[in-house]
Amino acid sequence: MANSTDDMLHQAQLFNDFTAKQKLIIIAAIDVFAEKGYAATSTKEIAARAGVAEGNIYSRFTNKRGLLNAIITPVLDQMFPAELDDFIKSRLNQDYMSLETFLTVLIQDRITFLQSNAQIIKIVLSELLNDTQVRKRVINNFTAQYWQTMTHDLTVLKQRGVLVDWPFEDILRAIWSTTSGLILGFLYFNQPLDAETVNHSISATIKALSPK
Amino acid sequence: MANSTDDMLHQAQLFNDFTAKQKLIIIAAIDVFAEKGYAATSTKEIAARAGVAEGNIYSRFTNKRGLLNAIITPVLDQMFPAELDDFIKSRLNQDYMSLETFLTVLIQDRITFLQSNAQIIKIVLSELLNDTQVRKRVINNFTAQYWQTMTHDLTVLKQRGVLVDWPFEDILRAIWSTTSGLILGFLYFNQPLDAETVNHSISATIKALSPK
Amino acid sequence: MANSTDDMLHQAQLFNDFTAKQKLIIIAAIDVFAEKGYAATSTKEIAARAGVAEGNIYSRFTNKRGLLNAIITPVLDQMFPAELDDFIKSRLNQDYMSLETFLTVLIQDRITFLQSNAQIIKIVLSELLNDTQVRKRVINNFTAQYWQTMTHDLTVLKQRGVLVDWPFEDILRAIWSTTSGLILGFLYFNQPLDAETVNHSISATIKALSPK
Amino acid sequence: MANSTDDMLHQAQLFNDFTAKQKLIIIAAIDVFAEKGYAATSTKEIAARAGVAEGNIYSRFTNKRGLLNAIITPVLDQMFPAELDDFIKSRLNQDYMSLETFLTVLIQDRITFLQSNAQIIKIVLSELLNDTQVRKRVINNFTAQYWQTMTHDLTVLKQRGVLVDWPFEDILRAIWSTTSGLILGFLYFNQPLDAETVNHSISATIKALSPK
DNA sequence: AATGAATGAGACTTCATTCAT
DNA sequence: CATGAATGAAGTCTCATTCAT
């Protein structure tokens, strides 16, 4: 499946440091990696799809894994942002910030992110399951700053009595399960990602995490 | 990582049609496929880990993919069961069956299933992302009978007013997202799967799917 | 240049631990390595010359360097023997052992050895110049036992007053320079290795190392 | 190992026809060729070590082998000089010229030459073993004029009765074996090249070639 | 049935060389 | 003239699969 125009525009932003030909390689690699998986993809096929000589891959990315890393790194780095959305940041410490607003902004933001990077997300996901190194990077990115930011904010909500008093792990899992379920259905099973569907998921999460 | 004793006992049941030597191959293949992914695993490594000659793989399983299919088929076939748990079946049509009981039994059952087949689930999951054929089989298994069974039961609950009035897709996604999130955390990120954690997930799902 | 019949008989003894097909590979590799050097030889050419599939090289010898090592190891191990020729051993401690006899037996023995392993010697020599690892192995083989054996015997000859009183290094260099010069002329410049030529070299060494 | 200052000064003389940038390439190539051998060296590494673009190699030296030839040619041309040292020339036809003087001057001169061109000598040596073309050039340089000059002078010494009456091949081999043994020990095995060591080698050669 | 040696296509990668800038 | 990106042939090595024993 070829990248959509939107994807290509978005990827153009992610890979600004690369030359035009390098971008061709990256675009092609994203396509094939997302379709068949990293291990089942040959550099020959990538080169052919990019319309360049195979050697280019190695002069720019050192080796096949270097190409993979160049692709997934920017997405990995943005997957668990160190800072929350400005809107949330500005209102969270004010007493009128509801759980509903918090979760809505949070989940919407991540859905937009995941959808914008659909193809790369597929690759990251597949490697997450198969590659210990990638898994470690994800865990690291998660714990490094995101965890602290989130737990800080969740604590505020807990103290205000609008959030269920569970361990943060369970709360975060609930949020991410819903978000991921939505995206995976969209990415792999042609399920819609329209406003109503998203709203149901957000609504489900809000209810799930509200105290009884 | 080697299979646990529980896994091996469970797998012994799944693969009763195979000879002892074939089971050795299957056990070994499950281990390596789950660890590194199908594409990154060589038949030589499987044979070595099983302690048999490489040729044995081909005499019974035709080829590498045949071995994969032999492994994932029984799990695929049970992943979306055509019939619900006896307890649910017996009570669902009675008016005192609560959403809470329904979801608790349903989710508990799938968690038990997924956990019992942890290694194979990893393999199925990875192939789901990378292999169109496997994805089609999953979709097929899902829609064939499970969908009808579930929608029938969910309809009953909806009519009784204890279930939110959303499309079945959204309801099923909510259930499966929670369940999968729990299992994936357990399988890939060393998260616990103890009673409290499971209860929180189930509780979250119940709240999520209850009408306001 | 193909191996001579003598070489092949000799090599059959050196490589007894290998199967027939492995020996074919070794014979072919010796030929090409000796002719063009290790680095300039492709495994494809070796396989073609041996009449086997290229993969065989890797299943038996791990990699290209493994094949080189299999070839040079037995020769390296015999190049600087830990024990001298029986004849020398038996007579050296007797008072009538002359320097002439000592050197004649010693040099003749090494010439026979070097000539019998002509092709492999070429390979060893080339690697000696280009590969630090091989150089270390040679130095190690030299110092491990050969040095002690030789210096012990040379000491006896010195004490008897029939050997020039130089450092052992200089004496050994004189012996090996002559021997090597003879062999290299034979191997690379089509010079003869007949009795008269050898006798002149031995005679030169005897005179060179006799006290004035 | 980088070139010593002496080497660089010496090389500056050998490669006067080249521009500064070309000399940088030559210096770098000498280093790497001497260390790993011609075949195992990439032009990319040479360019990197020289601090120039890879294309420069090709604009002046045509190709990799052209670079090798540019390096070894001046040394090959001087290895077997057509004319002997002035001192020898002037005195050889006089009756008081001793074998001792002859060999001392001759060997000292070659040792100085070989030592001054140590790195290039390593390259020449390695190619001598692996490359038929280089071997032919050496043989040609040897036979072209050096052989005639030497045999002429050796004949004088023979007639005067101060030189052993062997074929010239054997005499020249004795001289060159000793000289080469000295240099090789110095180049590859960290052996000393001090006055005493050299004197022993020269002394050995004199004795070896004196009539009994 | 079982073995694992053998095969050869094809994977990843290197590298001498070219050529547009 | 200088650069180094680009090329693609060729190299090393892997691996699914076959088949003689």
Give a quick precis of the structure.
Four copies of one chain form a homotetramer. By secondary structure, chain A is mostly helical. The first copy, chain A, has helices at 5-14, 20-36, 43-50, 55-61, 64-79, 86-92, 99-116, 118-130, 132-159, 168-189, 195-209.
| Tally of helical segments of chain A | 11
- What fraction of the residues of chain A are assigned to beta strands by DSSP? under 5%
Structural class of chain A: mainly alpha
Sheet with most strands of chain A: none
Rounded average pLDDT of chain A? 92
Gyration radius of chain A (Cα, Å) is: 19 Å
Order of secondary-structure elements of chain A: HHHHHHHHHHH
Itemize the secondary structure elements and their pairings.
The structure is a homotetramer of 212-residue chains.
Chain A: H1 5-14, H2 20-36, H3 43-50, H4 55-61, H5 64-79, H6 86-92, H7 99-116, H8 118-130, H9 132-159, H10 168-189, H11 195-209
Chain A binds a DNA duplex (21 and 21 nucleotides) through residues 19, 21, 42-44, 52-60, 63-64.
Please tell me about this protein's structure.
- Four copies of one chain form a homotetramer.
- Chain A is an all-alpha fold and 212 residues long.
- Chain A folds into two domains: 5-69, Homeodomain-like (Arc Repressor Mutant, subunit A, Orthogonal Bundle), CATH 1.10.10; 80-209.
- Chain A has eleven helices and no strands.
- In chain A, α7 (99-116) crosses α11.
- The first copy, chain A, starts with a helix and ends with a helix.
- The first copy, chain A, binds a DNA duplex (21 and 21 nucleotides) through residues 19, 21, 42-44, 52-60, 63-64.
